[in-house]
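Rather than argue in generalities, we reproduce a single protein record, letters for residues, whole numbers for local backbone shapes, just as it appears below:
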Amino acid sequence: MGFEQIVYFCFACFIVVIVPGPTVTLIIANTLSFGARAGILNVVGTQLGLILMIGLLAIGFEVISEQFDWFFTAVRLIGSVYLIYLGYKTFALTSFNIKDTGKTQKQNNFVLQGFLVIWSNPKAFLFLGAFIPQFLNSNQITGLQIINLGLLFMFIGAIFDSTYAIVFGKFRNIISSNHMKLVNKIGGFLLILLGLWLALNYD
């Protein structure tokens, strides 16, 4: 893969990742309610989910997507219910101290949320399966190319997703404690909407 093609791929990745989607919604919602650290941990979870997706693509995304359609459906529904539950809990928070609200969920929970969101949306897997092959060189090993391009996609995505967490984290820190109840409700509402969207948007 030449330098020029890598530049084109990076630009295409940039266009893709800057468009807000389910993962960005999750990151913003948790950052507003629990702080930038929660958003960063969501990014870690989504990256772990992407690693698994890219590995499956390298094996053969067409075969896997056909054989494991039931698996995608099950994970999507479980993830949707989980997000709606988290949204309700966040919406109902009564503590407005930033440090207190930041401790209401364990760190590994935020990582799990990110992982579930990326896998609750089968379109992410199918999109990668349609996007990455556009940049493959038929004269090189396909599996290795998919892994390399996938890792580059993950790197670019992690940068911009983390930026969302940092920016909204700074925004959250300037909000007085009197407004934290509204922030929690906005974050919870976003999570509930995200869960409903994932449950209903299965075409």
